[in-house]
Amino acid sequence: MTSKTIISCALTGSDDTPRLNPAVPVTPEQIANEAIEACEAGASIAHIHVRDPKTGAPGTDLSLYREVVSRIRDSGCPILINLTTGPGARFVPSEEDPNRGSELSTMMTPEARVQHVLELRPEICTLDIATMNFGNRAFVNVPDHLIRMATLIEEAGVKPEIEVFDLGHVRLARHLIETQGILQAPLFQLCLGVPWGASADTESLLQMKRYLPENARWSAFGISRAQFPIVAQSVILGGHVRVGLEDNLYLAKGELAPGNAALVKRAVTIIKSIGAEVATPDDARSMLGLPRRQQKGESVGVNR
Fold first, then answer.
1. Eight-state DSSP code of residue 24
2. Which of 6, 74, 143, 195 could form a disulfide with 279 if both were Cys (CB 3.0 to 4.6 A apart)?
3. Which of 221, 219, 145, 155 is nearest to 187 (CA)?
């Protein structure tokens, strides 16, 4: 086990979940408040998607990201901000012409997918390595696009969190690190149980962990009922953890989670019961090689 375990909280995601659990945050204010409450419960990192405040549908509008980030920062909450770059990779072929995407496709240029990261400069942002069947659609991230996105992310001084959903994605990430000179000292996120990636079980977690670069920082999560079992297994194997309403809507069988903080508190209980400690946001910054957050009214100086 690591000396301290970082808890990431994935606040809302982009699936049609608000209709299944009314606690899923939709507006920028709700998303920011959930981040703050998750931090108070023990989370060090808030993983953030945005939604259309009127419909609850997944959004990519820069103004929505800006409002969420501003609200968190203005509150003084020390949680690390992790913005998604996943939207813009969905491809559903047209029935009439499979060479073209249907109206359900959301493909965007690499530059458009990281625009909010370049402007808002969060501590962390995700980089999905996967090209895969994702439910009933294709999730498309080709190497040339990954290289362009990674280069822009790192030039902005943002740490990439490499999201991998299967063993081949780990291999591709290692190839990019070793041959392209990008994605240095990233945080790997092992995403388990997503159809149709690796299963949320011990064997898949172990196999993906074995393929990571030597001394890599990594975290893992399982979706739905696997969320808390993967918390325990990840901690035991020396990794960090992710929970949140993006991945799981329930606190227990038949019991909807009343918010992200409740899921974080359950993760804290599991971590401590195993004999590990929960990392604070300052601990997480140190462990991930990120500068200490500047406080209001404090002059910029050397990280200490």
1. S
2. 6
3. 219
CATH for the 4-287 domain, from 3.30.420.40, 3.30.460.80, 3.20.20.70, 3.90.79.10: 3.20.20.70
Cβ within 8 Å of residue 173, ≥6 positions away: 129, 162, 164, 183, 186, 188
What's the rounded Cα separation, in Å, for the pair 46 and 119?
A: 18
Amino acid at 2: T
Give the pair of three-digit tokens for residue 56.
């609850």
Euclidean distance between CA atoms 152 and 150, whole angstroms: 5
Structure tokens at 167: 């063993």
132 neighbors 196 (Cβ within 8 angstroms) = yes
Q: Which of 167, 83, 180, 168 is nearest to 127 (CA)?
A: 83
Residue 118 exposed, middle or buried by CB count within 10 Å (0-12, 13-18, 19+): middle
- Listed by start position, the domains of the chain span 4-287
* pTM to 2 decimal places: 0.94
Cα separation values, 187 from 20, 219, 279, Å: 31, 7, 15
What does the block give as tokens for 191? 């995403």
Nearest to 92 by CA among 128, 136, 129: 136
Confidence of residue 2 (pLDDT cuts 50, 70, 90): low
Give residue 254's region: left, alpha or beta (phi > 0; psi -120 to 50): left
pLDDT digits (tens, 9 = 90+) for 172-225: 999 999 998 899 889 999 999 999 999 999 999 999 999 999 989 999 999 999
Closest CA to 67 of 51, 55, 54: 51
Backbone angles phi, psi at 250, to 5 degrees: -120, 145
